């Protein structure tokens, strides 16, 4: 599947453990653009060789995407997306726990006091993840999707 355009294409309104608007880790920038119906301006991040990022703005959807060596690895959204369980930016930690229960794991954010990162892992290989950043006020502030090596990284490609 890597590098193929999914037949389920369109803006990433719904993030699942199988993809974001038809986009999956390993896809080229050209395939991401075609799937989401956008032209991303991908720029080298300077974090490490081959690491690049792009802002994502598609109607009400806002966020960013991370690419390594020209291949999509992860994206985080601060507006306009939801999960199939109805979790969206602004949802409460209680709602997140009701939706996913013991399937969630968590770790503290490295650079923001009081923020926790919650992860939901895909059961089948590849073990992609959803990431939920939860503020000290117990609200989801961003939702990410991607390859476990990238969506869990708190320093991008570094």
Helical fraction equals: 10-25%
Count of helices? 3
- Using the CA coordinates, give the radius of gyration: 15 Å
Q: DSSP strand (E) fraction?
A: 25-35%
Q: Which blocks of ≥5 consecutive residues have pLDDT under 50?
A: 1-8
CATH architecture: 3-Layer(aba) Sandwich
Question: How many domains, in number, for the residues?
Answer: 1
Task: Using the coordinates above, name the CATH class.
Answer: Alpha Beta
Total strands: the figure is 10
Give the full name of the CATH homologous superfamily: CAP
Q: Structural class from helices and strands?
A: mainly beta
- Compute the separation of the termini in Å: 26 Å
Report the mean per-residue pLDDT as an integer. Answer: 91
Description:
The chain is mainly β and 158 residues long. Helix content is 13%, strand content 35%. The chain is built from 3 helices and 10 strands. The strands form 2 sheets. Strands 3-4-5-6-10-9-8-7 form an 8-stranded antiparallel β-sheet. The radius of gyration is 15 Å and the shape is globular. Residues 1-8 have low confidence and may be disordered.
Summarize the structure.
The chain has 158 residues and is mainly beta. Helix content is 13%, strand content 35%. It has an eight-stranded antiparallel beta sheet.
Topology (elements, then pairings):
Layout: E1 15-16, E2 19-20, H1 29-36, E3 43-44, E4 51-58, E5 61-68, E6 71-79, H2 93-100, E7 104-108, E8 116-121, E9 129-134, E10 140-146, H3 148-151
Antiparallel strand pairs: 1-2, 3-4, 4-5, 5-6, 6-10, 7-8, 8-9, 9-10
């Amino acid at each position: 599947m890597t590098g193929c355009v999914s037949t389920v294409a369109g803006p990433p309104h719904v993030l699942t453990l199988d993809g974001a608007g038809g986009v999956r880790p390993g896809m080229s920038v050209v395939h991401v653009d075609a799937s989401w119906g956008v032209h991303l301006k991908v720029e080298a991040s300077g974090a490490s060789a081959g690491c690049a990022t792009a802002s994502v703005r598609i109607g009400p959807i806002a966020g960013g995407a991370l690419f390594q060596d020209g291949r999509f690895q992860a994206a985080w959204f601060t507006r306009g997306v939801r999960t199939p369980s109805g979790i969206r930016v602004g949802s409460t930690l209680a709602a997140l726990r009701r939706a996913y229960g013991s399937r969630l794991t968590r770790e503290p954010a490295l650079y923001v006091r009081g923020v926790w990162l919650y992860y939901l892992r895909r059961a089948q290989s590849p073990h992609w993840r959803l990431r939920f950043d939860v503020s000290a006020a117990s609200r989801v502030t961003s939702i990410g999707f991607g390859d476990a090596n990238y969506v869990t990284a708190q320093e991008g490609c570094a």
